[in-house]
Amino acid sequence: MKFLRKIFSGKEKPVNSYAVFWNWFQKEAILFYQVVKKRGDIENVFFRPLTQKLDELRKGFFFVTGMYDENTAELIFTAEGNTRNIVFVEELVAAAPPVAGWRFVAHKPAMDIKEVSIGINGLVFREDKLSFYSVDTPGYPDEINITVVYDDLTEDNKATVTNGVFLFLDNYLGELDFVNTIDNLIVIDKAEAKQPLIPIVKLRDFLTWRQKEFVEKYEGERYDTENDGHSVMEAQLESGDPLLAVINTELLNWDQKASHPWIAVFTARYDGSNNRGLPETDDYNRLDELEQQLLAELKDSEGYLYVGRQTASNEREIYFACKDFRRPSKIFYAIQQQYAAFFETEYVIYKDKYWKSFERFMEE
User: Is residue 244 within 8 Å of residue 324, measured between CB atoms?
Assistant: First the structure.
């Protein structure tokens, strides 16, 4: 039996490195092993202290635990599909020392579909309840859009069903494949289906085939932005304040966008209340410094394309299109910590193979 637990905040002596965390875990490993194997008071003996230490290390860790075999306890660390945190889960597990009686894993692995059965609020999600078909979108041939059909979907239980389907696929496909292979996913009732239904057991092979085609098509594709020109755009918001953007419009016309399917957006907020929503001189210079640091770390030759920036309404957004999400996650997090005293910051990383997010910057 597996146990899943979100990581909540803790306030004891902080853990500030992977080494410190694993040193603590080693000291508690025998006690933790015993409570997992005997199915004792796992909530208080294992979940609570582990939760606390992980949250001190970094927010966004989740875990699953249970017995891998008769003599080995398994601890699976997961980001629960959040691309921002995947790389940190991998680093945590990579730093793990050998611990007798324990096996550590990064990300939930794929499971045999016969073993996947999830119950939520009286609803069951398993192989015989689900089917799917793929939807092709004109103009976007590389997008993988999956429609999943659930037999017992109603308007009242739609949120629960959608959550259940996502959990089912996360376990069936494995966490990383679920994140990497599907671009868009919707859940519908059988009566809404517009194509013949395919048994859900065939989804994994279908996605493997589509992903193989995609990788072969774009493998090794690079773009050199060094000689590109950037367009300066200005607009007026409804408030009357200006919106300024500096965008590589040559890059936006590239016909191989899907080779860099991950969009990374770093946002820094400042006080522009006395400057029509734009930064004052000190903030402007510091924002420019921040942006230059991002550019130095995320190079186009390594698969991270600088698209541009937008400044308005007391915030600046900086845009990249990326081959992968791991390095931007690390760099954005480091920059966020570095500038925490100057700006309120946040970042998002999401898949958008055709860069639809930037269509507003394209000339009509």
Answer: no
